[in-house]
Amino acid sequence: MKTYQRYAQSLLLPLLLIPIIFMLAEFATFLDQNFNNSIAYFLIQLKDFYLSYLPLLFAASVSFFFSRRMDGTNILSGILAYIIITNILSEKTLTLAFEPAAFTLDSSFLLIHNSFIGIMCGVISAILYNRFSTVQLPQGLAFFSGKRLVPIVTGFVMIGTGMLFYLIWPPFVRMVHSFVNALLSLSIIGDGLFTAFYTLVTPIGLSSIMEMPDNLNSFIQSISMFIVPTTLAVVYFHINDKYRKEYTIIILFTLLSALVKGPTILFEVVLLLIHPLFLLIHILLLSLLVVICNGANFSIWMSGGIAALLYLSCMMLLITKKPQYFSFNMNRSNSLSLEETKQIFEAFGGIENIITIKDNGKKVEIYVVDKLYVDTSLITTLGYQTPKIKEANEYVWEVINSKVIADSLRELHQKELQALIL
Question: Which residues form the PTS EIIC type-1 domain (predicted)?
Fold first, then answer.
């Protein structure tokens, strides 16, 4: 799978709940206004509660998708990374760490709970998982080997990262805010440039430390009700039939998010999932609409009609010129690293002990010469489920992406056997 698709998938997992939560909040508002229902209060608060914890969910999801294996340890590491850095840079910790009389809290630290930090924590924890999940410690510390080592390393790395961010976070936030203020000072053209910049950095979570002017936010939310259905309808009806089922739910939830006026990040992440070119076109057209329609104070219906026509024209042009962009899939197609493949062979007694390797759905079937040479504990150390014995010399191993694992094992098995023959 391409990196941008995997990244978009990692953000989609937490974002797909947003339209449901916003719909519940709208329903709760209706109940509260018409029936004075006390239960409505809890549903209304659910929206703010979920959005406040969205960065934490990003940290867990990004770590999960970018790790070599889908394992609970990488989720724990992502959550741990976010908790550590946000607590190190919290108002309470910084006030206690320095002399209160001589310390003034920088206002930028009040923005530390944001999606950008969550995504960054997810990436860092995934890198650490891929690096340390196969490390074997000396015998006395063997319990902490492999995936158990990852949260420990993550904790120490994030402590150092938090100290580093104490120095670089305030100037970074001031630089971003200065740049945004400079754009907004350019009147109508500045509004368009700000919209382009805001939309561009939304998929990396950086927009969460900015504040969009109310007039721009209202305009974008309104025309999104025209843009989103038009764009996604073209995508749905021209997507390759082979992949249409995979995207149906995503498209429906994105449409629902536009109808309940949820955050536009879901639509932008879906565009990134399809292809980065779709997102770039959206950024260009949206900023152009802000300059022309919002600047000229067109009505929402006129602005929406122009927006739908522009997006429809660009999408149809893409279909004509780049039809391959509508033949995409979301299947994870990673291959195992050579080091990990060799460790799996070692767990099954080495190259000479393996007779055949087959994949069957979500299972890998491995036939061995002698099961006495098999050490399934090594498989567990790598973060996989323990293989089960089906017959005397046959092991059934339940794994995600069994075909990828089986293909990697077969490829190395064939190469090593040929080398032995030679």
Answer: 1-422
- Domain assignments of the chain as residue spans, ordered by start: 338-421
Q: List per-residue pLDDT tens for the chain, 422 residues long.
A: 578 888 988 999 899 888 888 888 888 777 777 776 667 777 778 888 888 899 999 999 999 888 876 667 888 999 999 999 999 988 888 877 776 666 677 788 888 999 999 999 999 999 998 888 777 777 776 666 777 888 889 999 999 999 999 999 999 999 999 999 999 998 889 999 999 999 999 999 999 999 888 888 889 988 999 999 999 998 888 887 767 777 888 889 999 988 888 888 999 999 998 888 899 999 999 999 999 988 788 888 999 999 999 999 988 888 887 776 776 655 544 566 777 788 888 888 887 788 888 887 678 888 888 888 888 777 776 667 788 887 777 888 887 677 778 888 888 877 776 665 54
Question: DSSP characters for 284-336?
Answer: HHHHHHIIIIITTT--HHHHHHHHHHHHHHHHHHHHHH-GGGG----------
Could you tell me the CATH superfamily of domain 338-421?
Answer: Glucose permease domain IIB (3.30.1360.60)
Cα distance between residue 43 and residue 273, in whole Å: 31
Q: How far is CA 321 from the centre of its chain?
A: 30
CB-based burial label for 254 (10 Å; 0-12, 13-18, 19+)? buried
H or E element, residue 97: helix 91-97
Which residue is associated with the tokens 């206004």? 33
**pTM exceeds cut of 0.90:** no
Contact 342, 106 (CB under 8 A): no
The closest of 165, 272, 161, 253 to 209, measured between CA atoms, is 165
Q: Which of 203, 262, 276, 194 is nearest to 228 (CA)?
A: 262
* List of residues 6+ apart from 160 with CB closer than 8 A: none
